[in-house]
Amino acid sequence: MKRLTSDDFISTEPMHDVISFYAKFYEQQEPLYRLDNFFGMGEAWLAFRHDDVVAILKDPRFIKDIRKLTPREQPIEENASVNALMEWVINMPNMLTVDPPDHTRLRRLVSRAFTPNMIEELHPRIQQIADELLDAVQEQGKMDLVSDFAYPLPITVISEMLGIPVAERSQFREWTRTLGQASLDPKESEAVVATLNEFIQYIQLLLTEKRKNPGNDVISSLVQAYDEGDHLSENELLSTIWLLISAGHETTFNLIANGTLALLQHPDQMRLLQNDSSLVPPAVEELLRFAGPVLLGSRIAGEDIVLHGQTIRKGEMIVITLNGANFDPHKFANPGTLNITREENEHLTFGKGIHHCLGAPLARLEGQVAFRTLLRRLPNLRLAIDPEHLTYNKDSMRSLASLPVLF
Q: How many other CB atoms sit within 10 Å of the CB of residue 189?
């Protein structure tokens, strides 16, 4: 297998044919690979086997908080865009970028809004949003499933949870898309910095408004916690809200788009789901595995760690591919087959360990409502173009730029 770079993971092949791409890994004997250059940060280790990825995600010796390392131990950054992001991450910590006890403290402040009971209370509203979105396009007989349904559904839900005005939500997609694309290009560091600054300035204005007119929403409760001195710094407050906005819609809208495409390309599974709505929950789990949007994650060795006979030195990065782990033939029977009745499905799309996705219950519910509503209301749903002509965003996620469909 040829020497890999991070560009291989966001190239055309894994976007259009993720099964064949990761099959190459499992045809080889090496359990770990060396990436020549991980987005401008030099060499890194790569783990792709399911058991290895789980072990790394659960091992406290692999850390997220780069502040724990001395400058000499931190990854060398040749990519100016990544450098700008790294500096921002260091100065603007949130629960995704820190370790305990900071992670425990920050996660606790927002976890109460994402309990299973709280999420289930949102079910009627999520259903209403899904129906309203389809009402708007039903008579047209066609739509771009990304912009007309997959994106507005989760961004509307998370915006209402956070207490963000409707008129301002369209800007989030542009910000998150710019960050996702510009951070991969060394020449786009100015765009990264400018976008982050715009995003944070918007949140600062939002916080000012929440102090004047607090509501029954997540941001108002975080503002109250900060104002009452509940162990939350201003930068942590800003970064936490930024994370909730970004993570609160990106994974889900890509799941809905990628999952719909997968069903359209597997008509037998689509018919099975149309004929038996009780299969929607396991179908969503299978679509999370088979069409999951999260390509790569990373950890840094907090000390020298031996894995498969290789010594990962303190300060070295190890990249984990969640998609790769989801196609591990030692973990999943016929991993390249979409099987919505799959019983054993310990996919890793939401991660594992202490950083397991806080919003997983919400994403699952949104996915279930989305697919159930699409198949019930649009029984003749079909692709409007050849799948080979679909384009994907150059992003750190497997993300369709559009999905034209007819019904």
A: 18
